[in-house]
Structure formats: C-alpha cells, structure tokens
Design brief:
The chain is mainly α and 54 residues long. The chain has a domain of 36 residues. The chain contains three helices and no strands. Helix 2 packs across helix 3. The longest helix is centred in the middle third of the chain and has 17 residues. The protein is globular, with a radius of gyration of 12 Å.
Length: 54
C-alpha cells in the first residue's frame, strides 16, 4: 500500500479529509524537526499537537 492509498483509506475510516500535498509536506517538516530534536516518539505527538491546536 502506498502512502497515498493509506491516507485515502485512513481518511475514509475516520471521516477526515485527505491532506493536500502542501499539508503533507508541512507535517513531514514538523515530524522531522521533532524527531531530530528529541526522541523519535516526539514526531507523531508533535504532529498531533499541531493539528489539535488548529
């Protein structure tokens, strides 16, 4: 399964829109900063916090 296929399936499952390419790029940038600046576990949590903050 490709990343695009996964995101489409996951979005359908949770009732969320599929992120745009720009949104994916921004999330990956945040994840990269968090992963390289601390334990790798911080990356998905930082992305969640960014999304939750609006």
């Amino acid at each position: 399964m490709t990343v695009t296929e996964f995101l489409e399936a996951f979005a359908a499952e949770v009732g969320a829109p599929v992120p745009t390419r720009d949104e994916v790029d921004a999330l990956l940038a945040v994840a990269s900063i968090a992963a390289h600046g601390s334990e790798r576990l911080a990356a998905p949590l930082a992305c969640w916090m960014g999304g939750a903050s609006g």
